[in-house]
Design brief:
Radius of gyration: 19 Å
Largest sheet: none
Structural class: mainly alpha
Shape: rod-shaped
Distance between the termini: 67 Å
Strand content: under 5%
Number of strands: 0
Order of helices and strands: H
């Protein structure tokens, strides 16, 4: 008998990957523009 897929595990892996990608993106954005850059008004 074939084992049923563990959808909970797949969902969790997907969420972890999504979060990692989001963190990576935000980190790159922070590196692009320094915090001490003058604010344009």
């Amino acid at each position: 008998m074939a084992r049923k897929p563990n959808y909970g595990f797949e969902k969790r892996q997907k969420e972890i990957a999504k979060k990692a990608k989001k963190d990576e993106k935000s980190k790159r954005k922070q590196e692009e523009k320094p915090l001490d850059a003058p604010v344009e008004e």
